[in-house]
Specification:
The complex is a heterodimer of chains A (about 260) and B (about 210).
Chain A (H helix, E strand, L loop, with lengths): L15 H4 L2 H16 L7 H15 L3 H7 L1 H11 L2 H4 L4 E5 L2 E4 H27 L2 H10 L4 H30 L9 H32 L19 H23 L1
Antiparallel strand pairs in A: 1-2
Helix pairs in contact in A: 2-7, 2-11, 3-7, 5-7, 8-9, 9-10
Chain B lengths: L9 H25 L2 H18 L3 E4 L2 E4 L3 H8 L3 H16 L7 H20 L1 H4 L5 H30 L7 H36 L7
Helix pairs in contact in B: 1-5, 2-4, 3-4, 3-5, 3-7, 4-5, 5-7, 7-8
Classes of the chains: A mainly alpha (about 260), B mainly alpha (about 210).
Chain lengths: ~260, ~210
């Protein structure tokens, strides 16, 4: 029942993308992602994939990393675009029984799926080469309010604890008979509401202890300290190359749109 | 009910970020005005983690089971903190699970967060509009309304985005049939969210009523 979380998002390494300073990396890769989201012409997708594959290779992330993380979100996109070739468009290229495969639908599905894979892979490059704390530090230095970064840090820190608690509580509930004997729907819903309510209660009580511990360590007594004191790392070359690639995608898209 | 990367055109994603930025500014202003954020941050963060994990609980609805959105409930319990909690929850979902997306984070936050905050405000109306009712009935009624409203409004924003923002070459009748089916499919979910909110609020009333009082 509990969510299966990927704790190993960051893969340590010495590639140029790993050594790229976090702030320009975040900004450059976000720009690239938005540039990819602008693509509306299928003919541009090969160029987008050249850029993204180049980035992934430069990051020296293993292929298994992508294979492990892509299937779950991939299922959603398949569910969303899987119907398009059968219901969208007018040019029928194949017909059998009540099904008609349409050209425009295939093109639309390919475009959406292509953009999805490219943006997601770019996101994996960002997350796979940057520790979460460094990413938060970069966000804070870009002006994201302290309340948001503090909350993000705490939520992330306790997420795995809470997930473990839920798994334990669910197991205890199953051992006490939930789901095994014949139970009315109302009774099962009441059990689940109590399960979720207990999870909220435990989190609430834990938050009191966390706050006390944070106060004892000086939380709120001094200005927010930098989360990561490491020097920035390489900036110029990867930033210029990524932004050039992003601009090239935008220019090509605008040129194709004006034709 | 998340929109993944690659579906929406870039201008819509940028507009989503702009709106989410504006709402974040308003929410943080309200938070600093009405509460001691240093005390509340750990509570809101851990509750956000609990909601994040709790949304994986599947509710049996024979012959299937459904996962709840819980944004209305988040508004009930966290009030204005529901906005940063949803923003963070969506960011972590995108990072850890690949669910939702980075470019669509703003749009998804608007879709889930505005209904959550409004549901929280709606729940507080019980202090004024529900005065004449017995306390338990008032709590049940307003928790149902808030729980159902949260997911209902999110579904409406989602449909509006599907209709206006996603380019499609579907013929009009197919599109209308598809949207009608999608809307009808969400009605049971809206009802379920309302019922679950009632059950949870009654549970909290029994064991920790201060969680319902802000």
């Amino acid at each position: 029942m509990a969510v299966s979380l990927h704790a190993d998002v960051y893969i340590p390494g010495q590639s140029v993308v790993h050594r790229w300073a976090a702030r320009p990396k975040l900004l450059s890769l976000l720009t690239l992602m938005f540039a990819i989201a602008m693509v509306r012409h299928l003919v541009l997708l090969p160029w987008v994939f050249v850029v993204v594959i180049g980035l992934y290779l430069a990051a020296q992330l293993p292929l298994s990393y992508l294979c492990r993380r892509l299937p779950y979100p991939g299922l959603f996109i398949v569910a969303m675009v899987g119907l398009l070739p059968w219901v969208s468009g007018e040019t029928v290229i194949w017909q059998g029984w009540i099904f008609s495969l349409r050209l425009e639908g295939i093109q639309m599905a390919a475009l959406v799926a292509g953009r999805f894979v490219a943006i997601l892979t770019t996101g994996f490059v960002l997350l796979g080469t940057t520790p979460f704390l460094t990413l938060l530090e970069a966000m804070r230095s870009l002006g994201i309010p302290t309340l948001l970064t503090d909350m993000t840090l705490l939520t992330y820190r306790y997420l795995f604890d809470v997930a473990n608690q839920l798994a334990t509580m669910h197991q205890a509930m199953a051992l006490r008979g939930y789901g095994h004997s014949r139970q009315t729907l109302r009774r099962r819903w009441n059990w689940l509401a109590a399960l979720f309510g207990s999870l909220l209660l435990r989190s609430y009580e834990q938050s009191q202890r966390v706050y006390s511990a944070m106060r004892l360590r000086g939380y709120g007594q001094q200005p927010p300290r930098s989360l990561n004191q490491k020097p920035g790392g390489a900036i110029a070359l990867p930033t210029i190359l990524t932004l050039t690639a992003a601009v090239s995608v935008v220019i090509c898209e605008l040129s194709l749109a004006s034709l | 009910m998340h929109i993944p990367d690659g579906i929406l055109p870039a201008p819509v994603c940028v507009a989503g970020y702009a709106i989410a930025g504006g709402i974040t500014w308003v929410a943080l202003k309200r938070i600093h005005k009405t509460s001691d954020s240093q005390v509340e941050v750990p509570k809101a963060a851990l509750m956000a983690a609990a909601f994040f994990v709790g949304s994986s609980i599947s509710l049996p609805v024979p012959p299937v089971s459904v996962h709840l959105v819980l944004n209305g409930l988040l508004g009930i319990v966290l009030g204005w903190y529901a906005w940063p909690a949803i923003l963070i929850g969506l960011l972590l979902q995108a990072i850890l699970l690949g669910h939702g997306g980075v470019t669509t984070l703003g749009v998804d936050a608007v879709m889930m967060g505005i209904p959550a905050v409004l549901a929280g405000q709606l729940f507080q109306l019980r202090h004024y509009l529900g005065k004449s009712l017995p306390a338990k009935i008032s709590l049940g009624l307003f928790s149902f309304i808030a729980g159902a409203f949260g997911v209902g409004l999110s579904a409406m924003i989602f449909f509006a985005l599907v209709i206006f923002a996603i380019p499609s070459t579907l013929d009009q009748s197919t599109e209308q049939t598809f949207l009608k089916a999608l809307m009808v499919g969400h009605i049971p979910l809206i009802f379920l969210e309302g019922v679950f909110a009632v059950l949870l609020c009654f549970f909290l009333l029994r064991v920790k009523p201060e969680l319902l009082e802000r």
